[in-house]
Structures are given as structure tokens and as C-alpha cells.
Amino acid sequence: MVSRSVHAIAALLLVSCSTAAPPSRDPFGPSLESARQNAPQIFNAIHNAMRQFGSSLHHNGMSFFPATIPAGTMLYHGATTPKIPDTLEWLAFEVEHAENFARGYRRPNQTRGFAQSQENGQRPLQNWAHSEKEEYVTFRSSSMAHVFDDGWHGNEPAWEPGYFHIYQAVRPLNVLYLDGMAAGKTNMGTNDAEDFILSSNKSRGGYEDYIRAADLCTWSKQWGVDGLIRMEPGFEVIYCDFHDGGLLQVAANRRGPIDGSKEYLIFKMFEWIQAASKRYRGIGGNRVQVDYSSMVSAFFYPVNLTNPNATRSEHPRLVFATESELAAIKGHVERTVIRSWEGVKSTVDWQGVTDMIVTRYSDRLSLMAATKSIKDMKLLLSHLLDGYIHRQDDGFDLHAAQQRCRRHYLDGFAPVTPEDNLMHAGIDSTAKLICETLFEAHALVVENPSADESSVQTAVRMAQDLMDTLRWPEWKLCGACQVDEVCFVAMWPFGNVEDHYSPSCQNATTAFARNSYWRYNW
Ligand SMILES: *[C@@H]1O[C@H](CO)[C@@H](O)[C@H](O)[C@H]1NC(C)=O
Ligand SMILES: *[C@@H]1O[C@H](CO)[C@@H](O)[C@H](O)[C@H]1NC(C)=O
Ligand SMILES: *[C@@H]1O[C@H](CO)[C@@H](O)[C@H](O)[C@H]1NC(C)=O
Ligand SMILES: *[C@@H]1O[C@H](CO)[C@@H](O)[C@H](O)[C@H]1NC(C)=O
Ligand SMILES: *[C@@H]1O[C@H](CO)[C@@H](O)[C@H](O)[C@H]1NC(C)=O
């Protein structure tokens, strides 16, 4: 834990106890207005936090959440040696994820190994010549194509058996969760928040992950952060110092000789995808306790989140944010992280609030968007809204009913921190949008004596537009798949374009013949 002055703590407590949005003399600051403007995005960030499926769809994370990994939690690591790492290293929450790194490989005639224990080999990437890096990345990406396409062409790697490490948290670990697919090494914006905000670096290549992690750890040490949670297929922790007393090495199990066959590699990778898919709806086992009341998001700020690639406008980017704007958000993360470790937090389960709203409306909106008859539409809308309506002989008070609808799932939750207020604004504005749309349709179809087919069609369009705005992941789930299949959403580095836009059940054979959604740079 970092030391800090009593003054600093007092200042933090003062800020945290005010009920208004954080005061700022600087015109650039977090505001309720920005939170309302980005309401559906804030709603989704809260709803998808630590959930593999929604975070894969909304892969450009713009938010930071202080979190705790409780003592007793098991974490996994694959390496080419049994040694407890002396440098930062990656830990996985799933056995299958780490198993894929418990082996090494190198090209047949090379002595330098491309160890798979980390993305960048045994040596920190900054020590590699550019040509080596290029070769490594080409090798890694082409190796996948070779496995799944037409073989290795006599250029099989030499496999080395590795070690499967098991660690256990021996105290609560203070971590910072970076949302979206922040471990996806791409040029699509998956790394914007960590690179541009936390590292103040706008020119890093996606694959420079060791430098990225080293930077994040240098920053982390100043703020009492033990590690950073990110997501690829599976959640991981960049753990900064294995000798900091937070982890016990429970085992380092040696693996036997590697069967480098196509079948073996596909099996291992598909099991990794399977394991990740078990976390579509949450990490499970209470393994990560997110402090929602300390969420910091670019969505709270009046920052330009335009994606320079116009075809990807639904994915926010930070390329147009200025240095001082990025620095302001970073400062905000630093203040809330410290405050969270101090124990200043609300007990409001904001994700639970979003879940209540999503479970009430997601299927009903799908149904509404597919409703054909006026009778069915009347039944559905009445059912959805009657609970908020107090009927008099001459109708009902529309405004009061809308307010009841909007406040229903937020009533009784009192924001404590300034960030609670910003999240509240995001959820409230989302609820307002839903309720206003539904009441508008209700007026058109239920309350309107001359409602006809075209009123139904208008209501259908309203439901479709609302769904386009809300973009809840529930609308992309596949339904039940066979036991040897997964509902396959594109998860870096796997997945085709169609797997991003409309995930479907895929098996080990069909899942991997498709690598084209993600784009890399470096
Ligand atoms: C590896 O070295 C052997 C012997 O020097 C050579 O015959 C073989 O072609 C080399 N393989 C590759 C892939 O370069
Ligand atoms: C950004 O990071 C890259 C390495 O990832 C480094 O080469 C470059 O100098 C950094 N730029 C700044 C402005 O720090
Ligand atoms: C964001 O910045 C780009 C590039 O300067 C500009 O074209 C765009 O209009 C800006 N968007 C907003 C919402 O300010
Ligand atoms: C923009 O995104 C599309 C995919 O949606 C991709 O095909 C295209 O190459 C991207 N353009 C640039 C300039 O990156
Ligand atoms: C996977 O699905 C494809 C197409 O549905 C099918 O042809 C193939 O046999 C399946 N493979 C396995 C391993 O089940």
C-alpha cells in the first residue's frame, strides 16, 4: 500500500462525500451532462463488467474499475520453467487459458525459443531487434493459419514441454480492471484506454504488450495496485511482483512431451474458448469484487470518442482526445483507486440494477420488434406498463406513470461517491429512454381508439430503434448449443466478422477456420 499524506486522504474524503458531480474549475471534467449523453454506453459498461460475452461485443473498453481478488482465489500460469517469475507475468482465471501457455516452441533451426509463456517470449520485448519482433509476430499469426489451413509445410516448430503453475491469493489483491477486450492486441482501439490514458502513449503497437504491461506496472506501484485485470478469451491478471507477498505458489506441474499435432492444438485451443464461454455471464465464484462506486470512464467526460474508421462508429476510440484530456482522466483514476483502497465506497450493486432492467425488457423488446398483430401488441405493451399506471375514470397521468417506470429499478439506491452519481445518471437516462419509448408506443397502440396496422408497424420500428441504441449483448446470444459447441463470439485473436455481428454455435472444426475479424498492427 502506498503511503500518502493525511491531507490527501482528507481531500479525497471530501470529494467522495459530496453528492454532486465532482467539482471542477477546469471546464474539462466529468459531468452529469456527459454521463447522460453517453447513457447507453455507461449502462453497457456496468452491465458487461467482468462478463466475457458483452465485453467481447463492446471490445473497446473506455472504463476503469478498482476491484479486489479475495484471499483464497486460485490463479493459473503457463511457463517454460517452474520458477516463480522474477518479473511481471500473466495469470489466468481459467485452467484452460494457462494450459495454452504451458509449452514453448521455436522454429526448427533456431536456438532462440519463442516461449509461449508470455506473448513476447522469454526476453522482454524491448530487448528484441525490430526484425525479431516482426518475425515473431509473423510466425505466431502464420502458425495459426498453418495449423488450421494447410499444415506447416515442413516448418513445424520444435515443441518444448512446459510447466503449469497454480497460485493462490493469500491476501486480498488490489487490482484495476480495464474493461472491454483490453488484452486483445489490435489496432482497432482495444488498447486505447490503457495506452492513451494510463501510459500517455498514443503510438504503441498492439503487440508491444510487454512494454505496455511494464508501463502499467510502473504506474500501478505508485497507486497501491497489485495488478491489472484484462480480458482476451478468458480474463487475466498482469501481476506486477510475484514476490510481493500476495501470492502463494501452490504447484508448478511439469507437462510431458508435447504432441504438436493439429488435433492436439485445436483441442487445446477449443478448450480455451470453451472455458472462456463459461464466463460469458460473469467470472463466477466471487473471484473478483468490483467496486462499481469507483468506476472511472471516458464516457463521463465531454471527450471526442469518434472512431476515425467510419464503418466502426459504434466502437469508441480516443484518438481525437487531447493530451490534457487524457491526463485529466488518468488523474481521476488515480484518485478513485486510492479512495477505493481506503474503503470509501457505496454498497450499491449497480450491475445488479442494470441486470434487473435488462431482464425485464430485453426479451420483451425483441418480441415487440417481431409483433405483427394489433391484439398481440396491445397485450404486450399493457403488460409491460400497467404496473406503472394508476388509472382514473378519465385516463391516467402520463407524466407520473413515465416517472414511475423510469425510477422503478433505481428507487432506494442512494449514490455515495461522485462516480455513483455519474453511473446513476447513465442508468437513469437509459431507463428514461426505454420508458418514454414504450409509453409512446402505448399511446399509439393501446390508448388510441383508431389504432391500426400502421400503428403496429410504427411501434415495431420504435422497438427496433431502441434496441439499436441500447445494444445489449442479450440480443446476440445463441440459445443452447450442443456440448461440443460454443456460442462463438469473436474473441481476439479468434473469430470471423460474422462471429462479431451474429454469434452462432460452432464446434472445434468450424470455429478456427476463421480469423479475420481482428486486425493487428505494430
Ligand atoms: C534446418 O537445418 C537442416 C540442416 O542444416 C536443413 O536441412 C533444413 O532445411 C533446415 N530447415 C529449415 C526449415 O530451415
Ligand atoms: C510509446 O511506446 C513505444 C513502445 O511501445 C515507445 O517506443 C514510444 O517511445 C512511446 N512513446 C512515448 C511518447 O512515450
Ligand atoms: C471529433 O474529432 C474529429 C476530428 O477532429 C471531428 O471530425 C469530429 O467532428 C469530432 N466529433 C465531435 C463529436 O466533436
Ligand atoms: C475500417 O474497418 C473495416 C471493417 O469494418 C475494415 O475493413 C477497414 O480496413 C478499416 N479501415 C481502415 C482505414 O482501417
Ligand atoms: C462441426 O460442424 C460441422 C458443420 O456443422 C460438421 O461437418 C463437423 O463434422 C463438425 N465437427 C465436429 C468435430 O463435430
How does this structure look, described?
Residues 1-20 form the signal peptide. InterPro entries: YOR389W-like. Keywords: Signal. By secondary structure, the protein is α+β, with helices and mostly antiparallel strands. It has helices at 6-17, 32-37, 39-48, 52-57, 95-99, 130-148, 192-198, 209-222, 262-277, 323-341, 350-369, 374-385, 398-407, 418-445, 453-470, 497-501, 508-511, and strands at residues 63-69, 74-79, 89-92, 103-106, 114-115, 158-161, 163-169, 173-178, 227-232, 234-239, 247-254, 289-290, 296-297, 391-392, 395-396, 485-488, 504-507. Strands 1, 3, 8, 9, 10, 12 and 13 form a seven-stranded mixed sheet that branches. Strands 2-7-11 form a three-stranded antiparallel sheet. Helix 14 (418-445) packs antiparallel against helix 15 (453-470). The longest helix is centred in the last third of the chain and has 28 residues, at 418-445. The protein starts with 5 loop residues before the first helix and ends in an 11-residue tail after the last helix. The structure holds 2-acetamido-2-deoxy-beta-D-glucopyranose (NAG) (5 copies). One 2-acetamido-2-deoxy-beta-D-glucopyranose binds next to loops.
The radius of gyration is 25 Å
The secondary structure category is alpha+beta
The averaged pLDDT comes out at: 87
Overall helicity: 40-55%
Bound small molecules, by name, code or SMILES, are: 2-acetamido-2-deoxy-beta-D-glucopyranose
What profile does the largest beta sheet have?
7 strands, mixed
**Spatial shape:** globular
Task: Report the count of strand segments.
Answer: 17
Question: Based on the structure, what is the oligomeric state of the protein chains?
Answer: single chain
**Span between termini:** 35 Å
Give the strand content: 5-15%
Number of H/I helices: 17
